Amino acid sequence: MATHAKTANWLWGSITVAGVIGAIYFGWQLQSLQALNHKIQSGSLIKDKDYPYLQRFTAAYDQGKHADYKHAVQTYAQLLEASPPEAELPHIHFNIANNLFLSGLVRTVNEDGSFQDEARYAYTQAKIAYEQSLRLQPADKAAKFNLSLLHSVMARGMQAGAKDQSHMELSNLPIGLP
């Protein structure tokens, strides 16, 4: 009986020690994740190499926040390329669309009120990205609102700019031959 009790005590003692070690490990993980979440919520860049996705995401977000829309779109596109094909990332498409939309808004308009070609291109690409985001997450109210806002902006100034026709050839004869 004494050896049986001694074996049971060793068994329960080792289970208790393993439980305490596991609790300490998971407590440490929880604390580090809370610190990471606090960094994300405060808007600071993630520089921890253990989280490359978050590192790139916060870098892209920071670029967009500082009006570097072109690089923000490129960084978000790199995130899309690096993610597995089965991953559905509507928030990445949404952020790409937002940066393209803002990029189009900062472009100047022509004298006749039409958009420059760069703005027109940014708006069409933003429309495609918003639609992709909504295909992946149809209930996203922010994407729906931004897409409707984009449609209203596009409706006002999307007429094509006047093309310079002074260099057009009217026939298939080369210019300058006798």
TrEMBL record:
UniProt keyword list: Membrane, Transmembrane, Transmembrane helix
UniProt cross-references to Gene3D superfamilies, sorted A to Z: Tetratricopeptide repeat domain
Transmembrane segments: 7-28
UniProt cross-references to SUPFAM superfamilies, sorted A to Z: TPR-like (SSF48452)
Name of the protein described by the UniProt record: MxaK protein
Phylogenetic placement of the source organism: Bacteria, Pseudomonadati, Pseudomonadota, Betaproteobacteria, Nitrosomonadales
